[in-house]
Amino acid sequence: MMLDTIKVNDKTLPWLIIERGFEIPSFNFAIESEEIAGRPGSIVKSRNLKEYRFELPLIIRNDYLSHGGMKNISDVTNEVVRFFNYDEPVKLQFTSQDWYWNAYIEGPIELDKDRIGFWSFKINVVLADPYKYAVEGTKNTAISDQVSVVSTGTADSSVIVQATALQNASYYMITKNDEDYFMIGDDDLDKPVEDYSPILWNNEMRAFTGWGKQSGSTINDNYTGGTNGGSFEMSSSNDAFKLKQDSITSTTGWNGAEYKHSFGKSAQDFVSTCKIHVNQKNKGSTHCAQYLYDTDNRLIASIGYRNARASQAIGSIVITLFDQLGQQKKIYEYTNLPMFYKWEDIVIYMRLERVGTTFKIKTWKYKELEYPKRVIPVDVNEKQWEDSGKFYQRPIAAVSVYIAKNGSYNHMPTYVLGSYTHEKLPKPPKARDMIIKKGDVININTQDKTVTINEDPSLDLKTFGSDFFNINSGYNECIIYPEKTFDTTVYWQDRYL
Description:
By secondary structure, the chain is mostly beta strands. It is built from 1 helix and 39 strands. Strands 1, 2, 5, 6, 7, 8, 9 and 39 form an 8-stranded antiparallel β-sheet that branches. It has a 7-stranded antiparallel β-sheet with strand order 17-22-31-24-25-26-27, with no helix packed on it. The longest helix is centred in the first third of the chain and has 12 residues, at 73-84. The two termini are 27 Å apart. The mean pLDDT is 89.
């Protein structure tokens, strides 16, 4: 017989096994009832799943812990503590089962000092979420705007809906069994619909086409600037620009590469977003910025990220404006919170918007995870700044991206993943905007109650009255509107009591 072990967030310790005879607990219903005078028995008011707690008995077999012979108690304790040390719920799976729980694990972990061959101990498992989830997720893609979602679980399940726009649209809606729907945007036919935020230049950094390499000048930006003249190269996955380090010969100061694109027209009101990936495993300093230029090729705004420390992963987002004389004004600085210091990878979005004299800033971050793992934006931060002296009102006509290293110090690998700039046209009060552009990816997560467009948190676009629905156990028919506008895939994990 195979000995059962446990997986915590898909990791196992081969020498950690579950004590024989342990029976996996089943669900825990709480029934609230009420007695009524003059009537026999009682009536059931509600039936809810309650949190569940149990002790999990584990055994450490020290006979095959390591090739180098047996480990001592402190090594074993350290490894076990590391294995269970999470502040948030973990994916807890028994290797003999094809399902998992989202569980909290409580200590303390105490091993008997006098034992050497094997140790037995117990951990406390707390199931705030009492459902079991299928390890293998399921997905189905819509055909002619219809998608069948068949859940073989015994309970309802949350879904992740991913839709790619085939053309511009003012709304997206998905309905379930004609009873529930989720919608963003506006489908009121009495309102005229226009594209009030046309694209100036959206680029996913998959090729250098359209970008011109700049050289021979210094970018007079005191926070994220430096000299240009170096080169970019494509990342190994061919989806980002990074600094080609051997193109930088100077051994002092900030030196890097700048690539520029002209819009071919000017725009007064705009929204400009830069998406970068910082690899913090490799400690070092970095500058990275997206610059906006006016019609006279003068800097007007920088949207940047900096880490001026050679051996620490702290980093700050800095956004500045430049007047006609090139004088720089910092309007936003936001330093990474300590929680990010331990992250190996951070994906950072930085956005600057100008409408009239009002500048709006929005920044947010993600842990780099493949889809469709939870896509939850972290540390969303917003700020508004008023250009009351009207010093920063020149139209924009070009955009550039810049990455620099400092002297011969180690460079923290920084990748530009995307540059997106849109014009903002005045929108009449009773009009519909094409809030969704061709190629946009919408992500609706009904468990975490999040909606994003191109990974931008967009909960404010949710239509009043629509809901983050779950799919029922059994057969569900989902329909997508408007017709022939989206490619939709629904992902779900069957859920069991």
